[in-house]
Amino acid sequence: QVQLVESGGGLVKPGGSLRLSCAASGFTFSNYAMSWYRQTPGKERELVATIANTPTYADSVKGRFTISRDNARKTVDLQLNSLKPEDTAVYFCNARHLLLTRTVYWGQGTQVTVSS
Question: Can you name the residues that pair with 39 across neighbouring β-strands?
């Protein structure tokens, strides 16, 4: 069956770094745009970064986060640098079919907490 499994979340101090990974299985990975979203209780889920062929980023993370994908390994990573307390959220991996765009998969999420 389809699976998106995130890992790498944790507690980090402001200014620190973290690397999140998402391992995909059960679908043709190369046919999907891969994204990272994040959500804080009381706030709407927001798109952080997306990569199909070229990466795009939310303004709030541009220059600090880097998204990458490895189609052979079926993984998508998010490198989080210069972390701020406002980056604290549950981070979700998302896959959306490039053609059949109603086909969407979500991971379970991984917690990132930025605090001193």
Answer: 90
